[in-house]
Write a structure and sequence with these properties.
Layout lengths: L1 H94 L3 H20 L2 E4 L11 E7 L10 E6 L1 E4 L2 E4 L1 E6 L1
Parallel strand pairs: 2-6
Antiparallel strand pairs: 1-4, 3-6, 4-5
Length: 177
């Protein structure tokens, strides 16, 4: 019996340790479930942050593109209003008889055309070329005897201009028929 009394406390200790181990296993399972849930939540938040970053990048690009387009539209609007002044200067140069005055007006004309060139404005070639309705505006037709000249621009009344690929003003022309 003495041996049984000695074994009893060890059996109690063993049962207590088993109970403690079961409790620890239960706590470990709960901790694992919480960790899995938090990992999933962390991944969701990381995905959300990535989507928000992509959305913001797209917004920034759209805004930059929009601002660039608005700036270009403003520049084009000013240039379109300046082109008739350039036409008047060209006509004035042809009418002025005083050479010094004509030279001064020519200088102003050159400065304006250089300024337009800095903005990428180029003249649309027309004289002697085939009529192109995308860049030429025919206001007259003239009969020609030479069949090779039919469909060609024979006179330019107002020069046409473009800025890059954007048409600012078509050339006003006379076309051979």
């Amino acid at each position: 019996m003495a041996d049984e009394k000695k074994d009893l406390p060890q059996a109690d200790k063993f049962e207590a340790m088993q109970a403690q181990l079961a409790n620890l296993n239960q706590q470990f399972s709960i901790a694992q479930a919480i960790a899995t849930k938090e990992k999933s939540r962390s991944e969701e938040l990381a995905n959300l942050v990535n989507r928000m970053q992509a959305d913001f990048d797209n917004y920034r690009k759209r805004t930059n593109d929009g601002n660039k387009r608005v700036k270009e539209d403003g520049i084009c609007e000013v240039i379109e209003k300046l082109l008739p002044v350039l036409d008047v200067l060209k006509q004035a140069i042809m009418m002025i008889t005083d050479e010094k005055v004509a030279e001064g007006v020519k200088m102003i004309y050159r400065q304006i055309t250089e300024l337009l060139g800095q903005f990428g404005v180029t003249e649309i070639p027309a004289l002697g070329l085939p009529f192109d309705p995308t860049v030429h505006n025919a206001i007259m037709q003239v009969k020609v005897k030479d069949a090779d000249k039919v469909g060609l621009v024979v006179e330019v009344f107002n020069k046409g201009y473009r800025m890059g690929e954007r048409l600012l003003r078509p050339s006003i022309v006379k076309v051979a028929k």
